[in-house]
Here is the input.
Amino acid sequence: MKRRKIETEYHPRKRPKKAEMKLIKLASWNVCGLRSMLSKGGIQRLIESEAPNILCFNETMLQDKNIEDVEQLFPSHFNKYWNCSHGKKGYSGVAILTEIKPERVIYGIGTERHDIEGRAITAEFNDFFLLNTYVPNAGKDHAYRTQQWDLAIRAYIMELQKVKPVIWCGDLNVIHEDIDIYDIRGKETWACLTPEERGNFHTTLEVCRLVDTFRYMHPGVKGWSYFSRRNVGAQEKGQGWRLDYILISQCLKRNIEKAYTRPDILGSDHHPCILHLLV
Here is the structure.
């Protein structure tokens, strides 16, 4: 499958006054299986407490045949878009639920090898692209992740940015800075922590001029978003990782109002990430 080409070039407009801008509330969450999460109450609590305009779910583990039934469990004011794995069934998968109807939705990043597992979905809005991804864990195929996926997603974001700014969110399966894990020592060969993964991610942030919204607002705060279930009592012991991000094009940096996680909303081994952004 050939990569989709985006022809139009993005010409930045004069920044509007804050009074002329609208506030977008975005929530991104690796739910580790959407159907099971819906029975635990965490998603309902997130919607009630945050009132997000846009919900991004990662690792939904849905099949296409599940979508109609699952959609009935969400408020009707959301427009709902799903990208499921068409390789391994009941695996991976991402979704965007949005009050604001997008101009178009792109499923995948344009290459069959990268798209068969339903790891990316993009919604184009008037002022930005929203890219939601569940990035492959390098533990299963380090070479694929670092030599193919990382380069492909970088190229895809660069193409989007020729048109308009980008918000990239999801479980990105990488530790960017040492502060993003409880203890970096002795873990340099672990998935998400290898020099290749971290180096690729840093390069993508620089080349694509992306801002890590949480780290920008909270430079010295750990803000972990993931606690491994294999590490019993990890959250109580403070042994977390920050694998989940909401990144934005640098031109949107001044528009950030809030960026935070919700460790009090339970049900997954990941915490929801929240961004309030003026657009």
In short: The chain has one domain: 21-278. The chain has a mean pLDDT of 93. DSSP finds eight helices and twelve strands in the chain.
